[in-house]
Specification:
The protein has about 675 residues and is of the alpha+beta class. About 50% of the residues lie in helices and about 10% in strands. It is built from 24 helices and 21 strands. The chain has a five-stranded mixed beta sheet with strand order 1-3-2-4-5, sandwiched between helices. Strands 19-18-20-21 form a four-stranded mixed beta sheet, sandwiched between helices. A three-stranded antiparallel beta sheet has the order 8-9-12. Strand 6 and strand 7 form a beta hairpin. The protein is globular and about 85 Å long. The protein starts with 9 loop residues before the first helix and ends with a helix.
């Protein structure tokens, strides 16, 4: 019997009609394996995963494969986005056994969950052969199988060890990390490394903050060039905004077409910050379009943002997005079609499959003549309308707490800089969903869907990202409720996830016990739980004046410092937080009767140093510690600037405020 019909995960629901007797990840599934004395297949993937779909079509939808699985295994299907703890444990095992990892992840385990054979995608013929071999080994070589499993568990236990070496997160370390990134920078195409090439969002955020502190033009140029190359490339949706997950080549031309919430949230922060620091028109446009993509394309009816848009359309990757010259003419007419083909690099040879091309922006359009810009907007709109009539990729509409937290922070930063009321309202509405739906009895839940919260407990990144988001909304609204909620989440995380040595585990001390307790401090596709916690702790400490949270952040970062010294690309968010700590961070309060449009507030937002916190409102506003005891001087708006809890004199002139913000 397939047991996935009632799942909240769209990925699990994709498999509810398979001829496989799937179980969700439950204790009952492992009890059934013990009762039958059979091994467990743990199949891990996610809804937008192309090769997960391929393996499903080839194997899991096949009756003969289903029969083999049902006769000889208990089969468990896991959404890695819903259960990142399960994914982390078995991914570590897969990497230990094979030297690499990815999704779909295919793990064979004993009935107690101990993995003894791991892999990723298997073609049907190979998968059938593997099922037969594992069945025979379990029957005839049980002792050897269990010994191998015990060795794997021992290996991954060592890989997840905590309490190792630590070091201060110093200016010298951050300078060395920036220098290392500079050496790995692709000076021709932007970004770091070769194909496949991923948007390096967190490293770009770090370099922008490092530039602010040091004045390094090299850092700024790396960010500017990379952002321009991505925004002009096929990895960016030239018609609707939003970035794909990665480029299959080294020059951003052909993407893997899935669009993930977390990528776009982090990239919104990058382009917003680049625009803030430089006034670059392309960066400002891409930030606006990415904010629009988040709210328009990923917003769900029940509130919150969906996780992803699929890579495939009706089983064909990229079918919605690719164009031929003939299709452009059909949609636009001969003149505009030829003009669009030239502008978007669409040729008869093509850059994608079957002579089609992914749209790229061949020339600068942001500073173009107004008539050219108007034509471009008209052509874009017509192409978008034509594309909307095509079959569309599926959407994974589960709401993930951590990723929605990242989006809230990004939208707040964009809204406070631009004054955009739509982004401000969107950020606040998403935060309400997290507070009202995902926060249950003082603990975070990882996911919800269609207004119903799921059972999986929140992991460390959920607590860190949501707490940072609540600190951001507190700064946006001046509402003390958000700061209180952030503090409650941080207190829970410190009590439940701490290692006792400054670091953090990724799961709580009272969470389900897996074969090992994951604790990965590195930043990968998203900030690590540790980095996101450090970011939230720094912001909360600056907003409240409570030093112990700042010290907890410092201790956490010190556990990552040895990694940052050797592998800067995998500690980008930690380094970003490190820059905030090194900066102070600055605490800026603007006492004003009318925050909207206040020149002091505008100046503070434009010139705030790395990681600064900023609140504005009437003096002594309840629930806003930074406004306590800070009156308006002579009845006019007054700014108070502190750094590391040491304060400058109050000022009423924007130029004086800017001078204070630049003095560090």
């Amino acid at each position: 019997m397939n047991r996935l019909a009632d799942a909240t995960s769209p990925y699990l629901l994709q498999h509810k009609d398979n001829p496989v007797d799937w179980w969700p990840w439950t204790a009952e599934a492992f009890a059934e394996a013990r009762r039958r004395d059979v091994p467990v297949l743990v199949s891990v993937g996610y809804a937008a995963c192309h090769w997960c779909h391929v393996m499903a079509h080839e194997s899991f939808e096949d009756a003969a494969v289903g029969h083999l699985l049902n006769e000889n295994f208990v089969s468990i299907k896991v959404d890695r986005e819903e259960r990142p703890d399960v994914d982390a444990v078995y991914m570590t095992a897969t990497q230990a056994m094979t030297g690499q990892g990815g999704w779909p992840m295919t793990v064979f385990a004993a009935p107690d969950g101990t993995p003894f054979f791991c892999g990723t995608y298997f073609p049907k013929v190979n998968f059938v052969r593997l099922l037969q071999s594992v069945t025979e080994a379990w029957r005839d070589q049980r002792e050897a199988v269990l010994r191998q499993g015990a060795a794997v568990v021992e290996a991954i236990g060592g890989a997840q060890a905590v309490g190792g070496p630590s070091a201060p997160f110093t200016a010298e370390l951050l300078d060395a990390a920036a220098d290392q990134l500079g050496k790995e920078y692709d000076g021709v195409n932007g970004g770091f490394g070769g194909a496949p090439k991923f948007p390096p969002q967190m490293n770009l955020l770090f370099l922008l903050r490092h530039h602010q502190r040091t004045g390094s033009e090299r850092d700024l140029e790396i960010v500017r060039h990379t952002c321009e190359a991505m925004a002009r490339g096929g990895i960016y949706d030239q018609l609707a905004g939003g970035f794909a997950r990665y480029s299959v080549d080294g020059h951003w031309t052909v993407p893997h077409f899935e669009k993930m919430l977390y990528d776009n949230a982090l990239l919104l922060r990058v382009y917003t910050e680049l625009w803030r620091l430089t006034g670059d028109a392309l960066a400002g446009r891409v930030a606006a379009e990415t904010a629009g993509f988040l709210l328009d394309d990923l917003g769900t009816e029940a509130g919150g943002l969906a996780s992803a848009l699929d890579a495939d359309t009706e089983g064909v990757e990229g079918a919605t997005y690719a164009w031929t010259p003939g299709q452009l003419v059909e949609a636009l007419g001969a003149d505009d079609g030829a003009w669009a083909a030239d502008l978007f690099n669409v040729t008869s040879e093509g850059t994608f499959e079957h002579g089609s091309s992914v749209l790229r922006l061949a020339r600068d359009i942001d500073d173009a003549d107004p008539a050219v810009a108007e034509r471009w907007q008209r052509v874009r709109a017509a192409l978008r309308e034509a594309r909307d009539r095509r079959p569309q990729p599926a959407r994974d509409d589960k709401v993930v707490a951590a990723w929605n937290g990242l989006a809230v922070t990004a939208l707040v930063e964009y809204a406070t800089l631009t004054g955009d009321p739509v982004s401000a309202a969107g950020a606040t509405a998403i935060a309400e969903v997290l507070a009202e739906r995902h926060l249950v009895d003082g603990r975070l839940r990882r996911v919800s869907r269609d207004g119903r919260v799921g059972e999986p407990a929140g992991v460390l990144e959920d607590y860190g990202c949501v707490a940072e988001a609540f600190c951001a909304v507190h700064q946006l609204t001046g509402d003390g409720r958000w700061l209180r909620l952030a503090g409650e989440l941080l207190d829970t995380a410190l009590a439940r996830f701490g290692t006792g040595h400054g670091g953090f585990y990724d799961t709580a001390d009272d969470a389900e016990q897996l074969v090992s307790r994951p604790a990965d401090p590195t930043d990968n596709a998203t900030p690590s739980g540790l980095s996101s916690m450090a970011a939230a702790l720094v912001a909360y400490s600056a907003l409240t004046g409570e030093v112990r949270y700042r010290e907890a952040a410092r201790a956490a970062l010190e556990t990552v410092a040895p990694i940052a010294a050797q592998h800067a690309r995998f500690t980008g968010y930690a380094a970003t937080v490190g820059e905030a700590l090194l900066s102070g961070p600055y605490e800026i309060a603007v006492a004003t009767a009318e925050p909207i449009g206040d020149p002091l507030l505008v100046a503070a937002r434009r010139h705030a140093p790395p990681g600064a916190v900023l609140v504005a409102g009437e003096p002594d506003r309840p629930g806003v510690p930074l406004l306590a005891g800070r009156p308006m001087r002579d009845g006019v708006a007054t700014a108070y600037v502190c750094r590391g809890f040491v304060c400058d004199r109050p000022v009423t002139d924007p130029d004086d405020l800017v001078a204070q913000l630049r003095s560090g």
